[in-house]
């Protein structure tokens, strides 16, 4: 393709530059607010560039870092344990569904993917977890519901479908058991798919607030995203009802406005540098998943 | 009529086959069990939708009340509002995202080079933020008294808008947030699709003197159609299922805004958490699932009729 500078290319670059700014500006607003001094925020609100650079917000949250550290701990634990268990389950299921000689393949395919298009809705699911499994307010409620996502099974199956069938045949000839073949032959060959799906799963666990919102009420198992939400809504509550809570609640214990924004940065920031490195996988995974067979 | 002995031998044969593939069966057992517990058992719980549920009596002890829960819901004003909001927002999202993402992908192809790596990364960034964090961004923009727009209005000598109390702006705000967060990834997916088109098509067309516009409309878009149709279908099938995070965290669950921000998912969640009327809440969930199911089936049937290769199954 031609590399000459031309008007049309210049205009397109212009469009993307404007677009990039429009995408980054809202994020930058929060970054800027986290580095603004409390007095300035109260006086003149949020702005893209603080009049005076201040680390106040970060100092406040680092003075009482217990909640933050615990939330990071919960999220890291849930992400690692959940991803390991889920990728094994997903790979096993995908493999069985990719085995064309499996007698119950069609039945199982229907059984797994039917749940993608018809579900019971929130109420029965909520009842199941809270009243029958009794895992509300435990770490299990944050891990188990996401263990098997049919969409990831589809990606995995799509990849394994393309592995040569003769390989399995010759493995059988050599007398290798199904399990040995799965772990020593199939899994190593599926490394690209395993990487992609693991990334999807860990991303889903890391950014999840839904299970926390539904099932976690006690302090001990609050994941990062739920902590962020709770902080936001508790500050909202204090700010909107200051006249009622004055005296009842020690206001100094609630993080200030800049601290709130600093918390958002500390909570969401690190992954903004890690996940972009894997952009290719995100895109590739979604494309594989949207293709039939 | 089958002979008893024959039927017996059929089961014996089946049992033999199962034993032969027992390792594969064991491998699929965890998935079968998981789906049984988390997807199929809850279907039984749907009977709540036809009962007047009481906590002390439980799911099976509560009294049946026929279609009362549905009647109660559908005769309320809410039923219309949340259905309309869910469908209209999702419809707008699907159209906006598909058009914008396709356009961006085609533009990216025009400027191939080192710089597009940077654009791709930036486009992709919002996808990495959770809606909770985006809620913080929304707060920095709309917060009464301190938000960016409040400051902007003051500096221009205008009356600041109370964003969290003024429903009429949200049909504009929510699609903007949706586009901001999702257009990048969709564009990258289409762009990857474009990279997969064999260059010889373009070379041949260029030799014949095709313009850039013709390359885009006669080669790129037709070649991407299968991908577009499938993503479109999946989205249309999900038109009854709203993106909870967007509709819950961005308007900050402000009750002033429900007329334009409440969707089926937020309504169900709120009803469940407020333990108002479990039976009716389950009925709303069932309504959502059934209509969603019918939509997916018919969308797929429609595409099968047009082009069998593009259908999902």
From TrEMBL, chain A:
It is a multi-pass membrane protein. InterPro entries: MetI-like, MetI-like_sf. Residues 72-278 form the ABC transmembrane type-1 domain. Its main location: membrane. It holds the Pfam family BPD_transp_1. Keywords: Cell membrane, Membrane, Transmembrane, Transmembrane helix, Transport. The chain crosses the membrane at residues 12-31, 71-96, 108-127, 139-160, 181-206, 257-278. It is found in: Cell membrane. Coiled coil: none annotated. Belongs to the binding-protein-dependent transport system permease family. This is Carbohydrate ABC transporter permease. It comes from Paenibacillus profundus.
């Amino acid at each position: 393709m031609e590399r000459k500078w031309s008007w049309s290319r210049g205009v397109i670059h212009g469009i993307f530059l404007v677009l990039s700014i429009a995408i980054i500006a809202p994020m930058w607003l929060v970054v800027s607010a986290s580095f603004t001094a409390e007095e300035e925020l109260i006086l003149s609100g949020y702005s893209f560039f603080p009049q005076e650079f201040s680390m106040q917000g970060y100092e406040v949250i680092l003075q009482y870092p217990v909640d933050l550290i615990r939330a990071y701990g919960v999220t890291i634990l849930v992400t690692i344990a959940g991803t390991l268990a889920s990728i094994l389950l997903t790979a096993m299921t995908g493999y069985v569904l990719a085995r064309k000689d499996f007698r119950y393949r069609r039945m199982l395919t229907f059984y797994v993917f039917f749940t993608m298009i018809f579900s019971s809705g929130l109420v029965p699911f909520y009842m199941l977890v809270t009243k029958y499994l009794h895992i509300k307010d435990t770490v299990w409620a944050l891990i188990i519901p996401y263990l098997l996502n049919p969409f990831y099974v589809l990606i995995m199956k799509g990849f394994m479908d393309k592995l040569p069938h003769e390989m399995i045949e010759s493995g059988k000839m050599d007398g290798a058991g199904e399990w040995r073949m799965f772990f020593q032959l199939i899994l190593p060959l599926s490394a690209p798919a395993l990487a992609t799906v693991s990334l999807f799963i860990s991303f889903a666990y890391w950014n999840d607030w839904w299970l926390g919102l539904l099932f976690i009420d006690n302090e001990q198992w609050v994941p990062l995203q739920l902590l962020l939400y709770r902080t936001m809504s508790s500050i909202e509550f204090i700010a909107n009802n200051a006249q009622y809570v004055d005296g009842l609640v020690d206001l100094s214990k609630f993080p200030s406005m800049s601290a709130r924004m600093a918390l958002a940065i500390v909570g969401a920031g690190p992954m903004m540098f890690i996940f972009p490195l894997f952009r290719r996988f995100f895109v590739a995974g979604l494309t594989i998943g949207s293709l039939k067979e | 009529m089958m002979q008893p002995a024959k039927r017996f031998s059929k089961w014996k044969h089946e049992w033999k086959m199962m034993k032969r593939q027992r390792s594969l069966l064991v491998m699929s057992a965890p998935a079968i069990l998981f789906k049984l517990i988390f997807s199929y058992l809850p279907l039984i719980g749907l009977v709540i939708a036809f009962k007047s549920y009481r906590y002390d009596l439980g799911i099976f002890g509560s009294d049946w009340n026929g279609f009362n829960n549905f009647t109660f819901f559908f005769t309320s004003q809410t039923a219309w509002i949340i259905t309309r909001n869910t469908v209209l927002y999702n419809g707008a999202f699907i159209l906006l995202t598909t058009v914008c993402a396709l356009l961006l992908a085609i533009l990216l192809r025009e400027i191939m080079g080192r710089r597009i790596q940077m654009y791709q990364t930036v486009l992709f960034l919002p996808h990495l933020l959770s809606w909770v964090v985006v809620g913080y961004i929304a707060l920095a923009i709309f917060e009464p008294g301190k938000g960016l727009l409040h400051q902007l209005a003051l500096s221009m000598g205008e009356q600041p808008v109370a964003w969290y109390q003024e429903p009429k702006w949200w049909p504009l705000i929510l699609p903007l947030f949706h586009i901001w967060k999702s257009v990048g990834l969709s564009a990258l997916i289409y762009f990857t699709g474009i990279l997969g088109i064999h260059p010889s098509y373009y070379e041949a067309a260029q030799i014949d003197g095709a313009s850039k516009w013709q390359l885009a409309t006669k080669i790129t878009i037709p070649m991407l159609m299968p991908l577009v149709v499938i993503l479109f279908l999946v989205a249309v099938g999900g038109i009854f299922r709203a993106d909870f995070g967007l509709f819950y965290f961005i308007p900050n669950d402000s009750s002033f805004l429900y007329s334009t921000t409440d969707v089926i998912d937020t309504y169900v969640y709120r009803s469940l958490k407020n333990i108002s009327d479990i039976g009716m809440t389950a009925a709303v969930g069932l309504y959502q699932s059934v209509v969603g199911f019918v939509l997916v089936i018919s969308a797929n049937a429609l595409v099968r009729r047009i082009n069998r290769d593009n259908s999902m199954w």
